[in-house]
Write a structure and sequence with these properties.
With 662 residues, this protein is of the alpha/beta class. It is 40% helix and 22% strand. It has a five-stranded parallel β-sheet with strand order 4-3-5-6-7, with helices on both faces. It is globular.
Length: 662
């Protein structure tokens, strides 16, 4: 095996990319971190020195080839460096979700048989120690932040600063061994193992090679012309494949700078200070930003509010055309420039998006109105479609071919096909190697020719080649009438409204659709204050008659919109209720990436579903919840059930009919 560049000149591993970056732009900023309100910067040359020190320290601790090194914590440069240091010594980094409870962490640590854990702070160390009896193979725990750690038993505990210091001291002792291990890395060596979110069961360990990560990073970077001058903000979970691709894969391929915010609470301030040129966020982030804007506008003076709405009405007409290079009259362009100077520009600056050249959203479908809002501002927001098993990228939207109802065309190097049952399959250089210790799962997902089943239902538009995703294949069903049932389509329309945080739609093999709604406490709370409505808790606000009236108006507006889609018009919501609690990952109702665990919700709230379909006007329920400190408790409530007006539909088309018509 060899770590030398391939015949095409592509370095064969992430550590090899690091060496190339040091040679090409060693003094250029590679990582920034905000701590105690101050930004600190490391060049590529300095990053290489830090990684070498950690790698030598890991060798001193006894890390062997093939060991799994778990990494748990918020986005910190030192944790990213630790993952690359693990690769350099021939080990496999396994990032975990930092907000996972101890029991969830125990499953992953046990499954991958991690001998070493690198944790961000005391909270993460405590969770590992809590389950140490279940995962006795852990030999050493390394922590980044020393606060609160002084009185712990340090037999197995080590500060990362001490590991680095030991690595620097032992540099000469391990120099040849480190060089030998790095030289052994090739394109097919394992780069990282990432666990799926476990929507339907236990998370699966997705093994991704250097080939997967580097080829995908190369193709996607060239697709959007990313270069060493770009800036990104690393704030999404490090255990998520997207963050690994953006903050390590593409960062090491292009040499751009990765910026780590101080905390989740300061993220918006840090976003404004950095002004990234390349920005990714799931729809929920864009929805929350828009909600905060609309709340502020409601509190603004009547004149400012009128100016904002007038400017946005014009921007929605002109902004997307300017982005796509379409002709715009001189008068419209001048008015847009004036609005940009007075209103749109300051708004983009407030959002931290003044410099965004390429923006992406993925993970869930984004509401068309939200999507259009950002493009109206002149932000080049696009959609991509991907999954962990693909090293993220399956399809992307090309500039000037951006639409809210598709996820674009295949990323360069990716092949697509649609099975007879409508399921989307792909094949690409980014296709994962295997599910760790799960050959049956691997075989059922990836066939002998390399085609991977996505689990999503969709179709390719014959005239444009764009992929349209309908829903998860397992969630797509039929109503009792034979009409197509695609809950995610309706849920995403409901979540467009700032007042609705989450929605779960039911209706498979039933004569009508019903829905659970979670209100957004920030948006609805602000509305309640403006309307002099007093409330003491989420539950009290969720059950208020005026809140029910407001949500009913949203549901009925969505029904009118759904009725316009010939293929999915049978999915209108006839009855709904507002849940007495927010759906929570700690309660098992959502994954750590905030995807709905539909089957668990159906089992947990079966009494409420029965009430929706049983014609009841209210239902008493008891629900077990998990508090922040891990204690279990029970909340009770009597929920009101509302009927929503629907639009009569004469006929409903199937997906096949729709494609034929197009």
């Amino acid at each position: 095996m060899s770590n030398a560049p391939s015949s095409s000149g592509v370095p064969q591993s992430v550590p090899a990319l690091l060496a190339r970056n040091v040679a090409q732009f060693g003094s250029k900023p590679a990582y920034r971190e905000k701590e105690y309100g101050i930004w600190q910067t490391w060049s590529w040359a300095e990053v290489s020195e830090e990684i070498d020190a950690i790698a030598n320290g890991l060798l001193a601790l006894g890390v062997d080839r093939g060991d799994h090194v778990a990494v748990i914590g918020r986005n910190r440069p030192a944790l990213y460096w630790s993952m690359v240091a693990a690769q350099k010594v021939g080990a496999v980094p396994v990032p975990l979700y930092q907000d996972a409870v101890a029991e969830e962490m125990a499953y992953v640590l046990e499954h991958c048989f991690a001998r070493f854990v690198i944790a961000g702070d005391q909270e993460q160390v405590d969770k590992v120690l809590e389950v140490q009896e279940r995962v006795p193979q852990i030999e050493h725990i390394i922590y980044l932040d020393p606060r609160g750690m002084r009185k712990y038993d340090h037999t197995k505990l080590h500060a990362l600063s001490d590991v680095k210091a030991e690595g620097r001291v032992a540099h000469e002792r391990f120099e040849k061994e480190l060089a030998a291990r790095q030289a052994e890395l090739d394109y097919d060596s394992t780069c990282v193992m990432l666990y799926t979110s476990g929507t339907t069961g236990k998370p699966k360990g997705v093994v991704l090679s250097n080939r997967n990560i580097i080829e995908t990073s190369k193709a996607s970077s060239e697709f959007d012309r990313l270069d060493p001058h770009d800036e990104v903000l690393a704030y999404l979970p490090m255990a998520w494949v997207g963050d690994f691709i953006f903050s390590i894969g593409q960062a090491y391929w292009t040499g751009f700078c990765v910026n780590c915010p101080e905390s989740a609470e300061t993220m918006m301030t840090d976003l404004r200070e950095i002004g990234p040129t390349y920005f990714f966020a799931p729809p929920r982030v864009f929805e929350n930003l828009l909600t905060s804007v609309m709340i502020r506008m409601e509190d603004a003076s009547p004149m400012k509010r009128a100016m904002f709405h007038k400017a946005m009405a014009h921007a929605k007409k002109v902004g997307p055309k300017l982005l796509d290079g379409e002709p715009v009259s001189a008068a419209d362009k001048l008015r847009y420039q004036i609005d940009n100077l007075l209103i749109i520009g300051p708004l983009k600056n407030t959002l931290g998006m003044s410099r965004v050249r390429v923006g992406y959203t993925a993970g869930e479908a984004i509401g068309p109105e939200i999507f259009d809002f950002y493009r109206a501002l002149g932000i080049n927001l696009k959609q991509l479609y991907g999954q962990t098993e693909a090293s993220v990228f399956i399809t992307q939207q090309k500039d000037n071919e951006v639409r809210p109802d598709t996820v674009g065309t295949p990323t360069p190097g990716v092949e697509l096909r649609i099975a007879d049952n409508g399921e989307v399959f792909y094949r690409s250089p980014g296709t994962f190697v295997e599910y760790y210790k799960n050959p049956e799962g691997t075989a059922s997902t990836k066939d002998a020719e390399g085609w991977v089943a996505t689990g999503d239902a969709g179709f390719i538009e014959p005239d444009t080649g764009h992929l349209r995703i309908i829903d998860r294949a397992k969630d797509v069903g039929k109503m009792a009438s034979g009409a197509l049932f695609a809950p995610k389509y309706v849920e995403n329309k409901l979540k467009f409204f700032p007042n609705i945080l989450e929605a779960v739609v039911f209706g498979n093999e039933r004569d009508m659709c019903t829905a659970f709604i979670n209100i957004d406490l920030t948006a609805v709370g602000n509305w309640a204050e403006r309307n002099n409505i007093a409330y003491a808790s989420y539950q009290e606000l969720a059950g208020h008659p005026q809140v029910l009236d407001m949500i009913q108006s949203h549901v009925e507006e969505v029904n009118r919109s759904v009725a316009e889609d010939e293929m999915l018009s049978g999915c209108q919501v006839h009855r709904f209720l507002i849940l007495h609690k927010e759906l929570d990952a700690d309660d098992g109702e959502l994954t750590r990436t905030r995807k709905v665990r539909r089957r668990i919700i159906e089992e947990k709230f079966h009494d409420l579903i029965d009430a929706l379909y049983g014609g009841k006007s209210e239902q008493y329920t008891e629900t077990e919840v998990t508090y922040e400190d891990g204690r279990k408790g029970k909340i009770t409530a009597t929920l009101k059930i509302r009927d929503a007006a629907t639009v009569p539909v004469t006929s409903v088309k199937s997906p096949e009919d729709q494609v034929a018509a197009e």
